[in-house]
Amino acid sequence: MSGTAVGSSLAAMGRIAGGVGPTGGPQPMHIPDGFLSVPVSLVFWIVAIVVIGYALRRVSRELDERRVPLLAVLAAVIFAGQMLNFSVTGGTSGHLLGATLAAVLLGPWAAMVVMTAVVSIQALVFQDGGILVLGANLFNMAIVGVLVGYGVYQLVSRALGNRRWAVPVSGFVAAWLSIVVAALACALELALSGTSPANIAVPAMGGIHALIGIGEGLITAGALVFVLAARPDLVAPTAKATAGQKALWIGGAALAVVLAVLSPLASAHPDGLEWVAEQQGFLEAARDPLYSIIPDYVFPGISNEALATIVAGVVGTLVVAAVAYLVAQGVRRRATQQ
Amino acid sequence: MADVLDPYRPRASLIHRADPRVKVVVAVMSILITAALPLGAWPSYVLLLAAVLALSVAAQLGVGFTLKRGLIAVPFALAALPLVFSTPGDALASLRIGPLVLDASLAGVERFASVLAKSYISVQFAILLTATTRFTDMLAAMRALRVPRLLVVIFSLMWRYLFLFAHEAKTLRIARDSRSADVGPKSGGAVAWRARVTGGMVGNLFVRGYERSERVYQAMLARGYDGDIRTFPLKPLASSEYAALAGAVAILALLGLLGILFG
């Protein structure tokens, strides 16, 4: 959870980038496997499939096939853009998640698809974030991050009107808030899984990302200023938001408010979340009656649990040794045949 | 360039030659079983770890390969550290921070260690999958497993340009670093200024990407692109492959059941 958490894809990128600068990870928001319970993982998978499925349908319906290479190339750009960092202090560095930047430049649905590609490839290829928890990571970064970034950007840029600094300022605010809200979602998932108590996870994640979000905000604002200067047509201002999207940016902003209000509440009253986590402990509870059905049975003939672990270790070692032996035999046989 | 970034490790092993669909299903199921195991099911953890190691030996990657790379997820463990103090149980040790007294319980330590062990094992299954399966094969498996077509097409095109833009980002970084002398902690202007420069670089990358995608689209059109990417379909699974899949799933299910019932 620290700002220097190692992200493997970025570490790999950092290595090929000639070891310039610290190889810090992206936002330390990519939850690895093992940190979320199975029910929580599955619920967020369902939410992610429904929302992203809808985004995919919208994108393929509204946009011509020209957008397919565009979305793919921009997903690669966001991925590579995450390796550009700037040093803050003491070996920590700031970098980009990119959800807000994508949302502002591409609109919410296309941005959701782009971020889905980025987060999925990071998990599937670089183990940056887990596979079973990919649904939750997609929810935090591709759905919450994009919707909040988009909603807040529309809201703030409308309020600021046509001022020259409207774009960078709304970009900064939207990017900062999208990071903080996504981190709060992440903390709530950890608390729901019983992995981290809400009264610690929420303020810790929220606090750290309130700082990290500043870097995100500054980079997003800088990127928007650059694009505005080089290709102003790509930052088509609020005109892009048609009537149908009005509901969307209000929804995104509302999502930000709800999560921002909910998290401190959950943090102040951890009992509620812990109760949910307890309910998920039903599997553990269900084990007890089974113990009484088959009493004292841990491993065949062994009643001591420590001994069972040792036996498992011995069995495991034998399995590995056997496979290693067979592989070595196979390699030698092939070598002699040649 | 692709060699450095691409986690695929070519070997002539049986695991490498196995059908990607089988590998994806078995890997996902292994991770699912690992996650479903109760906390403190140490014998099951050990057996799963042995399974990973046996597979990586069989894939000719060596024992240390997944063990070392599996450490990737460790920094995230900080998120679970409060469990040590928040789980009720017999106090093992007390930590005094000013007026705050934290009691570490044995149950808490075991919960924390369990989360760490499960995460470590899951990551190794994922590493094994990507080290033994080419990305193009993984895409074919995804398509066969009903991942939406549009998403798979975007994955495959993204993969093609990933290395290119990683290289462009690298050249941007070299350009920035060669223009800004690093003479101490205060060099390079204020943090906000440095962040804005980085933002400009990201914007630069974005415009380059946008314009490149237009050229890519023209080139694809010239070659007959009609919105669909055609690939050779995977061969239907042979009966031996079905048997291998069923065997692996059965072993995993048994392991999971034993773990859930007996720890």
Molecular structure report:
The complex is a heterodimer of chains A (338) and B (263). Chain A has 338 residues and is an all-alpha fold. Chain A has helices spanning 8-16, 38-62, 67-81, 99-106, 108-126, 134-160, 166-192, 198-230, 243-268, 270-280, 282-293, 305-337; strands at residues 86-89, 92-94. Chain A is built from twelve helices and two strands, in the order H-H-H-E-E-H-H-H-H-H-H-H-H-H. The radius of gyration of chain A is 24 Å and the shape is globular. Chain B folds into two domains: 2-143 and 235-262, no CATH class; 148-222, no CATH class. Chain B is 67% helix and 5% strand. The longest helix of chain B is centred in the C-terminal third of the chain and has 32 residues, at 191-222. The chains are: A mainly alpha (338), B mainly alpha (263). The interface between A and B is large, with 119 and 111 residues.
Strand content of chain A: under 5%
How large is the radius of gyration of chain B? 24 Å
Tally of DSSP β-strands of chain B = 2
The largest inter-chain interface, given as chain pair and residues per side, is: A-B, 119 and 111 residues
Mean pLDDT score of chain A: 76
Please report the number of helical segments of chain A.
12
How is the quaternary structure best described?
heterodimer
Order of helices and strands of chain A: HHHEEHHHHHHHHH
Q: Low-confidence parts of chain B lasting 5 or more residues at pLDDT below 50?
A: none
Biggest β-sheet strands, sense, barrel of chain A: 2 strands, antiparallel
Which architecture of the largest domain in chain A would the CATH scheme give at its second level?
A: Orthogonal Bundle
List low-pLDDT spans of chain A: 1-27, 282-301
List the strand order in the largest sheet of chain A.
Answer: 1-2
Broad shape of chain B:
flat
Class of the largest domain in chain A in CATH? Mainly Alpha
Q: How many helix segments of chain B? A: 11
